[in-house]
Amino acid sequence: MPRSVNSVAKRARRKKVLKQAKGYFGRRKNVWTIAKNAVDKAMLYAYRDRRNKKRTFRALWIMRINAGARAHGLSYSQFIGKLKTHNIELNRKVLADLAMNSPEAFKAIVDKVK
Question: Rounded to two decimals, what is the model's pTM?
Fold first, then answer.
């Protein structure tokens, strides 16, 4: 019985990976074995960093809220604690945006919880 080789699917798989490697430097963009490794590693980084992005944004929001709160004589932890006791349910993303872009609104929130 003759050997059966599915060249169409093989070429399609390789074209798909090489298309994903478009824009890479050197042989990473056009040599199959190197491009495959580069694309696999890129996919791992993309998967990991979709989760890390959430952490880094939360850390950024906390820094901005802390800076805004300290300008009005409170630390971040005191400010968040007082928000909880006064039942003000604003998330950190909104609070950080207020602290950066409309300080007068953020000051009104700080005055309300003091």
Answer: 0.79
Residue 65 sits in a domain whose CATH number is 1.10.1900.20
List the domain range (segments joined by +) for residue 23.
8-113
Look at the chain and report how many structural domains it folds into. 1
Domain membership of residue 1 (yes or no) is no
Distance separating alpha carbons of residues 35 and 13, to the nearest angstrom = 12
Cα 6 to Cα 113: distance, rounded to the nearest angstrom: 69
Model confidence pLDDT, tens digit, residues 26-43: 999 999 999 999 999 999
What pLDDT is attached to residue 94? Answer: 97
